Amino acid sequence: MENTDNLENRFSFGTLTSDGFPCLSRALTGKHPRVGIQNSDERNPVTQLRWAGAGGKLFGRTRIGPVDWATICQSGLNNGREIVVDNMRFIFRIPDIKDGYAVWPSQWKDEFWGTGKDAKRGTIRRFCRTVPPHLDLVWSSETDDVAEHLLVLVLEPVLPDLSILVGEQVTILTPLGKGTARLKETSDYDIMLDGWTGTLDNSWGKAVGSRSILRRDAVLNIGS
To answer: What pLDDT is stored for residue 95 in this prediction?
Structure first.
């Protein structure tokens, strides 16, 4: 079966907020608003943020901003902070990568905000002359302290101990998006669900009668 670390699947998840209020990605309010994400509002798709799931993390496909560095600091995105979206815990931040280090495959063609391990500011830039399978994006330092840039967000899942959720109704995030079910059993390799409402991919999940079995590495996050 396919290695889920190599998957790049796109889905909508969560709603952008500005100082706690729902906000469109290009309409942040306030001088230095505190940017956040609240629960998904599936009745209003225009407010939903778009993500790519890759390597166990969610990378924003919705570009936010323009955003200045004060907003990034006000929002805790330079160091990362914990949030809860749809009952699941995440570390919410901007990309955290080393200076000059290639990070994403060639599908990521936009210019992104990033921050190095030493908290310097910078952008992730694309090298046009590289060819697959080589990575073609690297982080470069930025010296303009007052510049505003379009922001890319990252969600790092904080997984709970699955054994304590057995028997509970849970929300699960997979490489194809969100679903709900009752968690029936869990092992080191897979989990068994009853009444799964999400999408399955036969590379990491299958239906067995009224139940569904998912590989553990396809569970990006889970919460109750």
So the answer is: 76
